[in-house]
Amino acid sequence: MTLGIKQEELLSKYQIDLDRRYNNTIPIGWIEMLDELFSKLIEAGWDRKVTQIKEKFGELRFYFYPNVPGLDIIVKTFEDKSSKLCYYCGNPATTESESSWISYRCEEHKRTSWRDFE
Ligand SMILES: [Zn+2]
């Protein structure tokens, strides 16, 4: 899946070196959260290299090599946080999607399909 404009803008804002050999899916509702994550990691000395950013079982998965101690703890905090945010808008999630595919949603986006955002 190719990344949308917002995702690409965020990556270039922080000059993130994302490995394009893997499938990277970044929910649109996570942009703000990732913005915060990137700035915290960079502040802590991150080399801006990341192998993969994706969603799994409704939660953020961020695969990278922590080049300085403590980075993995920051990432873990955000992985936990991701399941409390709506996949589509970043508002607090109130529900899981009604399909078998787990993703967290707010009331408004309870029935929204991925396709509506492409
Ligand atoms: Zn929403």
Report what the structure shows.
Helix 2 (31-43) runs antiparallel to helix 3. This protein has a domain at 5-85. The chain is of the alpha+beta class. The protein starts with a helix and ends in a 13-residue tail after the last strand. Strand 3 and strand 4 form a beta hairpin. It has helices at residues 5-13, 31-43, 71-82; strands spanning 17-18, 49-50, 52-56, 59-63, 95-96, 104-105. The longest helix has 13 residues, at 31-43. Bound molecules: zinc ion.
Number of strands: 6
**Could you tell me how far the N terminus lies from the C terminus, measured between alpha carbons in angstroms?**
11 Å
List the quaternary state of the chains.
single chain
Helix content: 25-40%
Enumerate how many helices there are, as a single number: 3
Rg, Å, rounded: 14 Å
Q: Which parts are unreliable, with pLDDT below 50 for 5 consecutive residues or more?
A: none
Q: What order do the helices and strands come in, and which of them pair?
A:
Blueprint: H1 5-13, E1 17-18, H2 31-43, E2 49-50, E3 52-56, E4 59-63, H3 71-82, E5 95-96, E6 104-105
Parallel strand pairs: 1-2
Antiparallel strand pairs: 3-4, 5-6
